[in-house]
Task: structure prediction
Amino acid sequence: MDNYIFFNNKITPLNKVFISIHDRGFLYGDGYFDTFRAFDGEFYDFKFHYSRMLRTSRFLNIPLPLSESQFINIMKDLKSKNNFDNKECYFRVTVTRGIDSSGPTIKETHIPTVVIEARGISDYINDKSQKGVKATILYDLKKRESVLYNYKTLNYLSSIVGFVNRRNYDDVIFIDKESNLIEGITANLFFYKGKTLYTSNRDDLFLKGVTREIILKGIKKFPEYKFSVRFKESGVKDLKNFDGAFFTNSVSLIYPIISIDDHKFSGRAEIISKLKEIYFKYLKE
Result:
């Protein structure tokens, strides 16, 4: 059975798609992407992802050629074509500036390359959501401030370096020049003590993800859950002060960190459970 993707204005079998070697995404990483899940056939958080793509589109001056409703209709068709109607899946949208063989200079007009893929949720993703992950701190690659961290561009080399250096761990935690713990390979980082969450709020060191945003909005909207948030950098020396830690991203949602190097967290399963409850309650109201 063929896998189908959306490629430049039509849904087509994956094995029929060819991207030019002169595409600027291939040559220079000149583009942006986003990923998001479908739950029970619905795209509850897509408006947040669409807004982020628009913001990146304006920053890079690469048009996003589809409306929010066009995206949703295409994704529904992809779900059906790939037999995901009764299965959990997620989507990746990739947009590049398009084909240009003239070098790194930018012409006034380009025709963007647009790809939308539907992908199944792997057992690994489900397992780490339930069982948690073990992380290690990457001391050799300290994050430096950059305006690019505000946008989900195709430049993902720092995350790839993290993956290469994770050794026998599930994930890596990056640090800044002051050795504060910043983020995972593809996820935002939280710590908690009781029902108080601790997370960095730096705009210049990591991308603030959609799942993170929804959790923070949900905590504010539903005070009956009695969660609070402190925006604060945390270092290795602070780990002993926390009950637990977790990562967030748009595919795995919220998943616990069992340990960071030699430090093991006692953790509280109900914390993760309640935060997921807040996440879905916020999206569905």
Notes: The mean pLDDT is 93. The domain at 127-284 is CATH 3.20.10.10 (D-amino Acid Aminotransferase; Chain A, domain 2). The chain has two domains: 4-121, 127-284.
